[in-house]
From TrEMBL:
GO molecular function: oxidoreductase activity
Domain Thioredoxin as annotated: residue spans: 25-165
The entry's keywords: Signal
Signal peptide: 1-30
Keyword Nucleotidyltransferase: no
This protein's name: TlpA family protein disulfide reductase
Length: 167
């Protein structure tokens, strides 16, 4: 009995460590193949983002943290866009498209904004339910960091700079 318990406890710890390594960036995993439908009706895919450091930010107009962090995300985009940085803002399926369009236009968001009408993109990216959830993707198309809630922007900028410097 004690031996079985120790084995099970060890297995649980191993799985937890593996999950932590993925979610906190110790191990990069390929970003899921996704198609982002932008506000203008055009489409971008995960493959289109390769070669750039990309922030994929799941958000909603009804999320107070999302709205509060948006000016910092705009400033981050403005700071790094000329160096090979991209930002993909993905509005959640429950967010009314008219609200998303209004928000993006009135705030003059400078980066692509997609509406995940079906929830397929959020599902593909780990079944995202909480907003904001933000992924940092390197030039090779690998997820290197996930933030749930507003990121520490100093840390985020250091990570972006490190990834931009990579070949």
């Amino acid at each position: 009995m004690a031996k079985t318990f120790r084995w099970a406890a060890g297995a649980v710890l191993l799985l937890a460590a593996a999950a932590a390594a993925f979610w906190w960036g110790a191990s990069a995993q390929a970003a899921p193949a996704s198609t982002f439908v932008l506000l203008d009706g055009s489409k971008r895919t995960t493959a289109d983002l390769k070669g750039k450091v990309t922030l994929v930010n799941f958000w909603a107009t009804s999320c107070t943290t999302c709205v509060a962090e948006m000016p910092k995300l705009v400033a981050t985009y403005d700071k790094y866009k000329a160096k090979g940085y991209e930002h993909m803002a993905v509005a959640m399926a429950y967010d009314p498209p008219s609200y998303v369009v209004n928000y993006a236009q009135t705030r003059k968001l400078p980066f692509p904004v997609a509406i995940d009408n079906t929830g397929a993109v959020a599902q593909a990216w780990g079944d995202v339910k909480l907003t904001p959830t933000t992924y940092v993707v390197n030039k090779r198309g690998e997820i290197v960091k996930r933030y749930v809630g507003e990121p520490d922007f100093g840390e985020l900028h250091r990570l972006i700079e490190k990834l931009l410097a990579e070949a």
